[in-house]
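agent> Task received from the user: take the single chain below, predict its 3D structure, and emit C-alpha cells. No templates, no multimer pairing.
agent> Plan: (1) validate residues, (2) run structure prediction, (3) serialize to C-alpha cells, (4) report one or two observations.
agent> Step 1 OK, no nonstandard residues flagged.
tool_call: predict_structure(input=
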Amino acid sequence: MPTANVRPDPDALLKQANAEETRRKRGRLSIFLGYAAGVGKTYAMLEAAHQRRQDGVDVVLGYVETHRRPETDALRQGLEEIPVRKLEYKGVWLSEMDLDAVLSRQPQWAVVDELAHTNAPGSRHPKRYQDVEELLANGIHVMTTLNVQHVESLNDVVAQITGILVKETVPDRLLKDADEIHLVDLPSEELQQRLREGKVYVAGQAESALKKFFRLGNLNALRELALRITAERVGEQMRSYMESHAISGPWHADERILVCLAATPSAEKLVRSARRLADKLHGDLLAIHVESPSQHGLDEMSVENLHSGLQLASQLGAETTVLPGDSIAESVLRFAARHNITKIVLGKTQRPAWKERLQGSLVDHLIRHSGNIDIYIVSDVPESEGARLAEPRRASPAQPWNGYGWAGLLVAAATAMGLPLRQQVEPTNLVMLYLLAILFVALRWGRGPSLLASILGVLAFDFFMVAPYHTFAVSDVQYFFTFAVMLLVGSLTSGLAARAREQAEAAQRRTLLTTELYNFTKDLATATRIDEVLVHIVDTVEHTLSGKVAVFLSKGEKLVPQAGGSFQPGQEELAVAHWAYQHNQPAGQGTETLAGARGRYLPLRTAKNTIGTLGILLTDSSNWLGNDRERLLDAFSTQAALAIEHLGLQEQAMQVKLLTETERLQTALLNSISHDLRTPLVSITGALTAFKEQRDMHPAARGELLQTALDEASRLNRLVGNLLDMTRLEGGVIKPLREAVDLREIIEVVIEEYRGRLVSRPLKVDLPDTLPFVFIDPVLVGRALGNTVDNALKYSPPGSELKISAVPTAESIRLVLEDSGPGIPSDELDQVFDKFHRVDRKDQLGGSGLGLSISKGLIEANGGHIQLANRPTGGLRVEIDLPQAEA
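)
tool_result: status=success, residues=887
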C-alpha cells in the first residue's frame, strides 16, 4: 500500500505511550546474551561499564563473577564495587550481592553478573533475576549476563540438544522486557580452543566439558538459538517502530509470507506452495481467510475446502487468521501492512473476462496497491472443477421466494399511491415512492428481491407516471436519463441496504455465539463438581450446534464414557475417540482422519496434558459449515478441559490435604502411644517387679510403690479414655444425657479424683451460696473439667495456687479455673484446642495434646462454651459457660 497519507495505528501509539511511561518509572535492563560459558559476556559487559564511566555515568559493580580469568579481573579495576554479603550454608561461606547496599547507594547503573544464578538460603529472593527486578523497580539501570540455555521456554530444547537439564532458568519476560540485548558471539571452534587453553575451566574440567556439553554440534545448535532470539527481538522492535510511525513497509529485513485462502479446491495447493516458498526463503508463513458477508451460506464442499486449507496451514506451522471484512483486497492489504508482510501468495482465478471488467479482479487490485510487497500467483484448478477465489460456489438460495412476491406487491403499492398524485406532482418527484419501496425490500429480503424491485419500479414508473400513460413510449427524451438514474440509484441503494443487512446478520450470529461462549464459561466457573461440568458441556453444545454430545474422560490409559451425554457411540466410534485422545488431534466427521465416522471427536487438552475427548454427532452435517462454529466448538472444548482439570486439581489438593492431616494425626497418635502410654506402663511394671523380687520390703516403701502404681494406672486410664473420647466425638457417638445438676457436686467429684496431686497444691474454691442448677450431662462435663484441672496441675509450678470459682450470668453459669503457670503464647490460644497440639516449651512435659480438645468437644456437646485467656499477673484462665436449668 502507498505510504503517503497513512495515519499511525492508534492502538500502536497507545501501546508505545504506555510502554514509554512504564519505562520512565523503571530502570533500563541491558542483557549480554551468549550461547555458552566462555564466549566473553562478562568481559564485554565490563567494557561497556567502563565506557559509561568515561561518559560520566555513575556505574557500580553489584556482583561480578570473573572465574579467576586475569583479563576479566583486570577490568574490575577503576570501577566502584559494592562489597558482597557472606552467607553460611552447611558450613560453607557463600558470596552474594548485597541488594540493600546497592539500593541504598542508588547508582545510575548497576552491573550484576549471572542473571540466572540461584541465591543462597537466607537471601531476600531465591533467584538473582528477582534481585534485578527489584533494582529496576527502584529506577536503577542494570547490566547483566545470560546464557541461552537458561531461558525458560528453551529448557526442554537445550536438554534435547545437550542431554543436560538446566535447572537454573529465568522467565522469558525478562528478554521481552529488556531494553537492550547485546549478542556476545564467538565461533564454536574458537570457544573450544579457549577451553583447551584453560581460559574457561581448569584443565580437568575442560577435558570433561569438551566430551559432554562443549561438543561442536551442541555449541553450533546453542549458537543458532542465541542468534535466533536476538533476531526475533530485533524484528519485534522493527515492527513496533513501523506501527507507531505508520510505515506500511514492508521492510525486507526478514521474509514474511502471507497466503490468502478461499473456499476453493486449490486451498491446500496454495498452502503447500507458500510453505515451500517460506522454507526456501527461511521466512515465517502466515495464512489468512477474509470472511466477507457475501460468503455467508456457502455449500458444504466449499466450506470443506476452506477448512482443509486452514487445517493444513496450521499443521505446516503457519499462523492462521480468519478476518471479517467487506473487501477482501483491502482486508488483506491492511493485514499485510500491520504484520510487515513481504510476499503475498494467492491463486489465479478463472472467472470470465466480462466479470473481471465489471467487478474488478482481486489480483489486479493487490498488484496495484501492494507497494513494495511482492505478489505470487499460483495457478488454480480449471474452471470446470469449480475453482473460484473471489466467488466460491454458493449454496442453494437461502432467501425465501416470497421476497420476490413482496417486491412486486410493494412496487404495485407505490404505483397505487402515485396514481392520484400524478396530475398535481412532477413525475420526477414520484420516483421517491419507488425508491422507498426498493430500500424497504433490500433491508427486509436482501439483494435479489431488491434488484427485481428496481427493475419493476422503472417499468411501472414509465408505464403509469410518464405521459403518454399506459404505454412504454416516452414523449420527452429527458425521462430516459431519469430512468437510468432511477435504475442505477435503485441498484446501488439495494446493494448497500443488502450489504448492511448481511453485515447485521453476521454480527448477530457472532454476538449469539459469543453470548453462548460467555454463558458457558460463566456456568463452568460456578460448577463445583465434575458431573455439573459435564451437564453444562452437554446442554450448551447440544443447544448451540443442534447435535448429540458424548464426553469421554481418561481413567489411566483407558477412555471412559461419562453419563449425561445423549450420544451413545458404539465400539467403532469409541475407537475413533480413543485415537483423538492418544494423538491429541481431532478425528472423525469433517476431519482428515477417520472421516467415515458418524461423529467428530475433539481432544480435551490443557497446557499440561489431554484429559479426555468430546464427541459430537450432528443431525445435519451442514451445521459444520462456517468458521465461526468451528472456532466456537474449539473454544467449548478448551474451556471444558480447563474446567475439568481445575476441579480435578482441586480434588487432588483436597486429597493431599486430607492425607497430610491424616499422616500428621497418625504421627501424633503414635508419638502419644509410644511415649505417653509407655511411661505409666513402665512405672506400673517397675512397681510390680519390685513387689515380686523384694518380699521383705519395708511397709512404707511398699505403700509408696503401691501409690505410684495406682497413680500411673489412673494416668494411663485417663490417656486411654481421652483417645476413646476423641474417637467417639469425631464419630458422633457421644449423646449427652442432660439433666438438672448442682455444679458443686461435679466440682467435688473432680477434686476428689485429683486429691492425691492436690495435697501439695493450695486449692481455693470460691462458689456463691446460692448457685442455680445447670442442665448438662454430669459425667461428660466432669470429664471435661477434670482434663482442665489436669492441664493446670501439669503446667503450673509446684506449690502454686489453683482457684476454682463460678459466677451466674443471664442464661448460664460461668465456671472459672485459674492457675499460676507460664500461660500460653497469644498466637497459640486458638490452636490449643486442635487435636494433638502441644505448646513448645523448653521443659516439654508428656501429654497427648488431646485434653483441651476433648474438653472443648464435651462442653460444646452439652450446649456450653469454653475459652482461654492469659492472666495479667501470670498464668492461664479457663472460662467454661454451662447452660442453666429451668427453674
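agent> Step 4: summary for the user.
Confidence is low (pLDDT under 50) at residues 1-6, 381-399.
agent> Done.
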